[in-house]
Description:
Number of helices: 2
CATH superfamily of the domain at 2-103: HP0062-like domain
Number of strands: 0
Order of helices and strands: HH
Distance between the termini: 33 Å
Helix content: 55-70%
Amino acid sequence: MASAATDLAGIGTALESASAAAAAHTTGLVAAAQDEVSIAIATLFGAHGQQYQTLSAQAAAFHQQFVQTLTGNGASYAMAESAAAQPLQSLLDVINSPFVTATGRPLIGNGANGAPGTGQNGGAGGWLLGNGGAGGSGTSTAGADGGAGGAG
């Protein structure tokens, strides 16, 4: 969410820059000639440019509020996830502890991956639920096999 908020803030900055660059060329129009029609057309288009600038400023304010809300909610979401995960991890540790002690494998959980470049086997996954870890890539010796994936 933080990345999305940063991207949105960048988009907002680009839009504000483009609007500011267009302001002088769209709000302060000079009549092509000094006749009534040219003056009326320049006034009309200048008014449209001013209305655009007003709407653009309102859109920029809304965009800024949206980015702030997204940033704040992202932090709240991360805190809630962290708070929810801690008790669940403790419960999972209590459930898995006897199985790990007796068999070396958890009841629920994924196995660890083998270390890269070692050919080490992946760790076994849980008895009931979980995937075995990926085997480590082969050693630097040409033709050496990588490690086996873990059971599970």
